[in-house]
Amino acid sequence: MPAPRYKRVLLKLSGEVLAGGAGFGIDPACVSAMAEEIAEVHARGIQLGLVIGGGNFFRGVAEAARHMDRVTADSMGMLATIINCLAMQDALEKKGVPTRVMTAIHMNQLAEPYIRRRAIRHLEKGRAVVFGGGTSNPFFSTDSAGALRALEIQAEIFAKATGVDGVYDKDPRKHEDALKYAQVSYDEVLAKNLKIMDAPAVAMCRDNQLPILVFNLTTRGNIMRMSMGEAVGTLIA
Question: Would you state the pLDDT for residue 67?
């Protein structure tokens, strides 16, 4: 088998995927299946950082939060990400992957506080690192947290795993004639407001020349294909 394309990857997972068909909470079978794929990639010697959203429990911009103070709602969303991080840690360690959860919101009984140098050291020692608590600041999505962590740990790519197989010129779930991009520039994503990722996250990656790969998580083997450098999804560069 050829050598992996990337040595260090930041993988962003949506919280909704952890819920499976239920749409809410955590589906243990889905988390286990995801952990199995991640374990296969880890076994190839690829260093993995993960950022997981909290949308399967709570989103600060969702309908449920419409009448709430935005700072309070976003804080609840950040706490939801930590629940997902602990679930993923449990699943990964059952697959034999040494894992550390690091959170931007300090809760020492549950996880390590996020310290950049310590995170990099964990990766160098072969541990998967799951980053929770977003950036610890309201008004920033987990996309922005993912871009920030990817840059901080010097990941070679920011891989966003979603429920669609790339970036389209319009929502493929609503428009049958939507066209998929094989590659698209950061500026085009921003200018056309393609909405595959929050604008601040795209701009942060653009300003630091960090490539973004958007691909379909629900296709078995895509995490490995992405890590090996195969043409999956859409490259934003």
Answer: 81
